[in-house]
Design goal:
Layout: E1 2-6, E2 9-16, E3 21-24, E4 28-29, H1 39-49, E5 57-61, E6 67-71, H2 80-95, E7 103-107, E8 116-122, H3 123-130, H4 132-135, E9 140-145, H5 146-154, E10 162-168, E11 171-178, E12 181-189, H6 195-208, E13 219-224, E14 239-243
Parallel strand pairs: 1-5, 5-9, 10-13, 13-14
Antiparallel strand pairs: 1-2, 2-3, 2-4, 6-8, 7-8, 10-11, 11-12
């Protein structure tokens, strides 16, 4: 079972049979936040699993529950603990002194010498998931985030220099990389009614960064938006747009 967790609710996709047929279970609309000890998530998991039994759980966390940053390569850092210590300092610089204390830090696997993507997940949320939401879930085999999961699923097919956009119902996350690794990553809560509105928003962000996106020199962009599988009818001028396939249903409605 794949469990998709967002601040607004939880939904699950069950896999069955030797062909791994996917079936979307009814979504559970519930507030998922740390203020009540993630009680909404525990209640949703109990509801989703009370009528069926699954062998294992793969969890994908909405980008609204996590934080991203670029982690430049530092040759003097000798191990994962030192990488995390630097990531915590950078986190504190952005969100306030000692704010990193309640977060778990992980990194994408990039080539030595290349800047990586740093991912911060609330430690209390991670602990709850490892405890299988008080035993209501089957064994949890993996925990990832929406943006990093999309990246990992398609990385070997992506260009050496490009942008990746992950679109949820009320959030957009986007980042870019080149041969030196990651150089930008952003995530913003915003409700965009159509894919065309999303592309217009992204063009504005490029312009604010001083980056030109023209028909003569288009920017390579990969769009991951579960529920959207074609670019038919879209005005993608200035963008070399590729929509990445997703086996998961949309979190919220997406329209062209």
């Amino acid at each position: 079972m794949t469990l998709q967790v967002s601040p607004q609710g939880v939904r699950a996709v069950a896999c069955s049979g030797w062909r791994r047929r996917r079936t979307a279970l009814p979504a559970v609309a519930v507030a998922v936040h740390a203020a009540d000890g993630w009680q909404g998530l525990s209640d949703a998991c109990a509801s989703l699993t009370k009528t069926a039994r699954y062998q294992q759980t793969r969890v994908i966390l909405s980008d609204g529950l996590v934080r991203y940053a670029c982690a430049p390569w530092q040759a003097q850092l000798r191990n994962h603990q030192e990488d995390c210590a630097l990531a915590m300092l950078q986190f504190d610089d952005v969100y306030g002194a000692q704010s990193s204390a309640g977060w778990h830090f992980a990194f994408t696997q990039d080539a030595p010498g290349a800047a990586r993507l740093s991912v911060a997940i609330p430690q209390s949320l991670l602990d709850l998931l490892h405890a299988r939401c008080a035993g209501t879930l089957p064994p949890v085999t993996s925990i990832s985030t929406a943006f990093s999961s999309a990246l990992r699923s398609h990385r070997k097919h992506l260009a050496d220099e490009a942008w990746l956009i992950h679109w949820e119902a009320d959030r957009v996350s986007w980042g870019s990389w080149n041969l030196d690794g990651w150089n930008r990553v952003h995530s913003q809560q915003i409700s965009l009614p159509t894919t065309q509105a999303l592309l217009a928003f992204f063009r504005r962000e490029l312009k604010l960064l001083g980056l030109a996106a023209t028909a003569e020199a288009p920017v390579q962009v990969y769009l991951h938006a579960p529920g959207l599988n074609a670019t038919t009818g879209l005005n993608a001028t200035g963008l070399r747009l590729v929509v990445l396939d997703s086996a998961l249903p949309a979190i919220g409605g997406l329209t062209a």
